C-alpha cells in the first residue's frame, strides 16, 4: 500500500547522525582571494590545473607532477608545480592529503600544517625522511611542504650553501640581485595558502612548523601575522638570526643590513610585540649534540625574550641528537599532535562563529513539536501525529525536513519485510533538509546548511561503528 501525503505534513524536524547526511551547500567562506581568483580545470592528462587571473597576467598556475599513495588509508603525496606571482618563477611544493580528503563534501576543508625546511633543502627532504605522514593521517590533517627558495637559471645564486638558491631565509629581499625573485615571505604567508585552499580545499585553518632556517621561518611568519596561524612549533630553529653568522650574512645580502633583519628575528619580534596571546604555547625541540647549537641557533635568547614578555613557550632539550632528520623523525609525531589539538579546537571555534539563521536561533537547544506521518506497526496505515523532537545530542544533527517522499525501501519496511525495521518510525529518508542545530562535536555541518539524509552512512573508516545500518527511520 502506498499512501500519498501532503508535502506540508513533512515540514517537520528530525534528528540524524552526521554520518547519514550529505552536505549540498557551502556553510561558510572565510578565506580571501587577495592574490588571485582561481578557476579550476583538469588537464589533458587528468591532472589538476588551474588558471590564475591577476590584474597584469593570466597564466596556467598549478600542475600536478606526481601523486602517490603514502599511507595505509590511501593518503596521497602530491607534487605540484606552479607559476608564482610572488617570486616570478616556477615553484614546486609537496602536499600530503590524508585519506579523509577523498571524502570531503562540497564546501568542506581540511586543516593544514605547513612545514618549512632548512638550508639546502627542497620539498623532498621532509617528505622522504621525516616519517610524518602516518601521524598526519591519524589526525586527519594535511601537510604543505614548500621549497626553500626560488630556483632556475635566471635566478640569482651564490657558491656558498647558506645564500641564494636553497637558502631563501623566508624574507622578501629588497637588494639586488635577489629582489626580483627572492620573495619567500610573501610566497609562504600569502600566495601559497590561497592557491592550496582554492585548489585543494586545504588550509582554511592552518598551523606552521619547520627546522633550522625553516624553524626561523615558522616562528617569524607566525609572529608577524598571528591571525593567519593557529599554532607554531620548531625543530632546532635559528632563534636569534641577527646575532649569528647565518642570519647576519642573509640579512645583509637580502635586506641590506643586519639591523633590517630584526623584523624577521623571532627573538626581536617577541621582545617588541609579544606576548602573542594567539599562541598558548610554542613548542621547540633542540638536540644537545647539534653542531650548530652554540654558534647559530641560540634557543636561550628566545627563551629569555619569552620570559621577559610572558609568552608561553616549551623548549625541550634532548641528549645525543644532532641537527639531522634522525632528530626530526624521532619527535615529529609530538609536533603533529601538538598542532592537531589546536587545529581541531580552532575548527570548532570557526564553525561556532558562523551566523545562525534567525528562525533557528529561537529553537536551538529546545524541544520542537511538529507534525509527522508515523508508522506505528507493520502493514498499518500511517497516522498524522504531533511529535516532539529533542535537541541533538553529541554527534547528532537536527534538521528541518522541507520536502520528501516514500521510496521502495520505505515500503519494504512498512510492509514488515525488513528484518531490521524499527517501529514506531517516521518514513521518508529521501528528503531535502536544512540543518537547524548541531550537537556537541559536530563540525561537518552548521545551521543553515542544506543536506540530504542518506540511507547508508557516508563514512570512510572501515572499522568505524558508524558503518552499521543507520537510517532516518529512528525509533520514536
Q: Describe it for me?
A:
With 476 residues, the protein is of the alpha+beta class. The protein has two domains: 7-21 and 356-467, Quinone Oxidoreductase, Chain A, domain 1; 31-352, Alpha/Beta hydrolase fold, catalytic domain (Rossmann fold), CATH 3.40.50. The chain has helices at 123-129, 133-139, 184-200, 213-224, 245-255, 266-273, 293-297, 299-309, 325-352, 358-361, 408-414; strands at residues 13-17, 21-23, 37-42, 48-53, 58-69, 76-83, 90-97, 110-116, 142-146, 202-210, 233-235, 283-287, 314-318, 368-375, 383-389, 396-405, 425-426, 430-438, 450-453. The strands form four sheets. Strands 3-4-5-6-7-9-8-10 form an eight-stranded mixed sheet, sandwiched between helices. Strands 1-16-18-19-2 form a five-stranded antiparallel sheet, with no helix packed on it. Helix 4 (213-224) packs parallel to helix 6 and helix 6 (266-273) runs parallel beside helix 8. It is elongated. Residues 1-11, 23-60 and 459-476 have low confidence and may be disordered.
